[in-house]
Amino acid sequence: MFDQVPTLLERLFLGRSISRRAALARQLPRWLIERIQLAEFQRTLERVQARSPYYRRRFAEAGLARNATRGVRHPSQLGDFFTTSADLRTHDTREFLCVPPQAGFETTGTTAQNKRIYFSNEEVHDIGFEGAVGLWNLGLRPGDRVVDAFDYAFWNAGITLMHSLNAVGCFHMIASKLEPGEFYRRVKEYQFNVMVVDTAWLVSLTEIAQQQGTWPVKFILSGSENMTESTRAWVESVWKAKVYLAYGQTESLGASGIECPAQKGYHLNELNFLFEIINPNADGFGELVFSTLTRKTMPLVRYRSNDITRFLDDAEPCGCLLSCMRRVDKIQGRGDEIISCGMGMISPWIFERWLNAAAESGLGARLADDWQVAVRQPGTRDIVELRLELREGIAGERGALEAELRQCLMAQFEQIFPYYFKNLTMGMFDLRVEFLPRGTLRGPSATTRRKLRRVVDERMPQAVLTTP
User: Fold this and answer.
1) Span between the terminal Cα atoms of the chain, in Å
2) Domain map of the chain by residue range?
3) How confident is the model at residue 325 (pLDDT cuts 50, 70, 90)?
4) Fewer Cβ atoms within 10 Å of its own Cβ: the N or the C terminal residue of the chain?
């Protein structure tokens, strides 16, 4: 019976009107949402068991034959069965498909091998439609004028946004990822009252607006990475408008959750995903895992997001239209060494490639094996700091060597990583190279040396997790 509930709600209760859907959303009882989720999860298991070569093989390896998965009533009953980002990179994507795709997107910047995620046109449209309810909850109306500065190259965010804005029926122009100064010059006269932009890019735009003036803005929606509360307060003070954050991954078509006017965590998209927090610590922080519920093209079962967060209880109810949907806290960090910052999504392979180029130039012979990248934010802009240890015995020439190394590394950075260099020239982050004495990063002696983490996020205190 409950496998028909979403269709009945769509046709008889919620309808295709965003205003009606938003007005009635708060009436949806929690128990019904959960029953819908579990019914759709069971249908997803049946679908991937029947049509996905990857999941059929994985289920067999885990001892979960078709008759076994039929008895699963909740994702947690699958035990240690998960889908990971490594699975998406190392296996032929066609093994995940259940029907031929009509749309596709890629992740960018995290590893040498991008993940490819596929959808049907209907799935893209429906996710955008759900996103329209979140935008309506923030105050977006048909009479508003929206501009977005998303990068459309292989990325899903702009396409999803277009479907959301079409559902609301408001005016929309695509600026794409222009240099912030050019964006300011070309956009100001249009008097857009809603902007949807990247987080780090917004900082650069706001610096310009602080010097040259703003225009009336209803609200700003940002995504792609975290924003510290101090930075948000500064941006809001300049624009005299609220800044809201959205949360998502390419794997979720960018639609995992969105803030509401209370700005106290992300309301989750629970009609399209079933979320879990695994391995939580004493404070409830753990890794967010989701299973798709309505996707037929490339369903994902218990996908590990690597994002560290926690469910928020009802101690501080927000009272908004989406209060029936659970919330998660702002992302506290990553479960691995992939960090989202003003530079983009960064991980060790990027800097290994960069340093290999230095080694080939001959300067690398002066560098020790240990290095580390730290992301700091002492002000409003992220600083990506490459920390390099110099080999011993070069103290006398250190000053000249450091200058030569910096010049070489910066030139190679522009040549090897044009995408990241573009973000640098836009002022989305600062890039620094710092040189340290040999042995600084790991500790003074072999007996006390700790394991060296190549990429660290020093912008906020990280939640301490229990080991799986």
Assistant:
1) 37
2) 2-336, 341-457
3) very high
4) N
277 beta partners = 288
The amino acid sitting at 333 is G
Q: Are strands 171-174 and 103-106 parallel, antiparallel or unpaired?
A: unpaired
Domains 2-336 and 341-457 share a fold: no
Q: Contact at 8 Å (CB) between 279 and 80?
A: no
Say which residue the tokens 């008895």 belong to. 71
How far is residue 349 from each of residues 113, 225, 362, measured CA to CA in Å? 10, 20, 20
Angle at 296 between CA 293 and CA 298, to 5 degrees: 95
Degrees, nearest 5: CA angle 80-301-11: 145
Integer Cα distance of 331 and 345 in angstroms: 15
Task: Find all residues with CB under 8 Å of 362, minimum gap 6, and list them.
Answer: none
> Residue type at 211?
Q
C-alpha–C-alpha distance, residues 279 and 75, integer Å: 14
**Topology at the third CATH level for domain 2-336:** Rossmann fold (3.40.50)
50-108 pLDDT, tens digit per residue, is 999 999 999 999 888 776 677 788 999 999 999 999 999 899 999 999 999 999 888 75
